[in-house]
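Running co-folding for fe (ii) ion.
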Amino acid sequence: MSSTLSEAYRDHPLHLHHIIPLDFNSLPDVPESHVWANSDDDFPADVDRSTVPVIDLSDPDATGLIGHACEAWGVFQVVNHGIPLSHLRDAESEARRLFSLPVRQKLKALRAPAGATGYGIARITPFFSKYMWHEGFTIMNSAFDHANTLWPNDHARFCDVMDNYQKKMRILAEQLTKLIFKSLDIYSEEEEEEEEEEMKWWDDDPSTALQLNSYPSCPDPSRALGLAPHTDTSIITILHQSTISTGGGLQIFKEGIGWIPVLPVSGALVVNVGDLLHILSNGRYTSVLHRVFVNQNWHRLSMAYFYSPPTDSSVKPLAKILNSGQPPRYRSVTVREFISIKAKSLDKALSIIEI
Ligand SMILES: O=C(O)CCC(=O)C(=O)O
Ligand SMILES: [Fe+2]
């Protein structure tokens, strides 16, 4: 399946200057190319209303809590998810090993202009006039080819840890997606195993990608941006973020409140609603706009696992949701087509397929 997801990206090659990251360690100041006019958004004073829900997966009401979080927030953090902290730490430490390599070494694994995997800057870069304080490494299933270039005699550890991490994430993503569908009430208790025709995809090969993100410490964080505002092209994204104590990090936008930090909770994973779930749920579960700020003292890492149906499957508002009399808000698109629309028009993609 990774090959078809790769193919979907191959149709939209980037220019080389849209791939090569800066050598962040060599910079005493933020270069003009990376300066963003950050409005100093005030964070909301009402802390209670502005804390992203943390959901215990072993809670008997986990389904209801997840449904509410997806509807009200488009994001939640999950604990008791069954993935041992040691696995998260191992993956983070392998990611750190990769990003700590000298730049000339990392460039050996540079993403090809029409490629989907390897080292490079954020895919959303061409939509913005400034560059981000960010470098990334994308894995689709096996990391072998790139890891073998980076560490010809020592790639096994990286590959094993990333393989294992993706396996664990796939199981969790499937479990969460089933709970999310259940929360949409699209099948009754008795029908639990009898999923709708359009939701059989998780038994096939879902389209998945693991995105390692690195945000080096920044000499002037108020003038830089780690990742510009975007929504994810996925059903859900499961994110592990390194536990840094101060400043910067992931923020989500909540209508009526503004930008809200998603503070790291040790061992918790952040779950985002992506565009494809937004379409399936006919807009009831909103794909959440998010961005990343950087900080002066810490090299922050995150690992985002994107979980989607196979690229040739069609995504459209689910029949059972429409049975309640709601008109469909979006036309049917294949995952591949939606990736293509998003590659051309980023934040307008959902409105382009609106009916
Ligand atoms: O680093 C983060 O917290 C978020 C990363 C992200 O949004 C992404 O990879 O799409
Ligand atoms: Fe994202």
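Result summary
The first strand starts at residue 54 and ends at 56.
The radius of gyration is 20 Å.
Job closed.
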